[in-house]
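Students often ask what a 'structure token' actually looks like in practice. Rather than answer in the abstract, let us consider Dihydroxyacetone kinase subunit L, a protein of 213 residues. Its sequence is given first.
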Amino acid sequence: MVSQAQILQWLQSFASEIEQNKAYLTELDAAIGDADHGINMDRGFKKAIAQLPTVADKDIGSILKTVSMTLISSIGGASGPLYGTWFLRASAAVTLKHELTEQDMLELLQAGLDGVLQRGKAQLGDKTMVDVLSPAVGAFQQAVEQNNGTVKAMQQAVAAAQRALEETIPMQAKKGRASYLGERSVGHQDPGGTSAYLMLKSLLGVLESSGEF
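Now compare that with the structural description of the same chain:
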């Protein structure tokens, strides 16, 4: 089971990962985007974390919805709507729940991915966060079907995400600002995919630290 406290820890951890990687994410975005991904994400997640004490005693769905609303209102560019939608759809999948089974976690991750697909209209191979999130959710689902447990499933999801992130480097971008560069977008790691990987990695870190395998 994933507890409400662990979800709060995860959000704190992800915000810390964004802060620590702010310059790196912005550097990646400078190569193929607006050079503001790290800056925008850091600002948005700092504001989201500041809101958490107001919902710390609420259900997981309410916590994630609060994060969503804060991100949508405070992050510019494509990142705000996409991450806001991810957390909004994820929140709807776990409404009123205070702890999550591995099936709940699968539904949360799948709902977030579905939201990003619908909002951003990106497909696999377009060099976006979808290229990282989709294989990760697929790996998580496969692990759940094999009754591997939440932590093992998350380990497999993060491993798939890491491989997929590296595979964005040779891709040509077909969505967003990076698509304007055409072939010049080849050879650069996708910044949105990178922050998506950090999101999953930070969740795994919290689950592993609990010692529940």
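One point worth highlighting: The first strand starts at residue 2 and ends at 3. Ask yourself how you might have guessed this from the sequence alone, and why that guess would often be unreliable.
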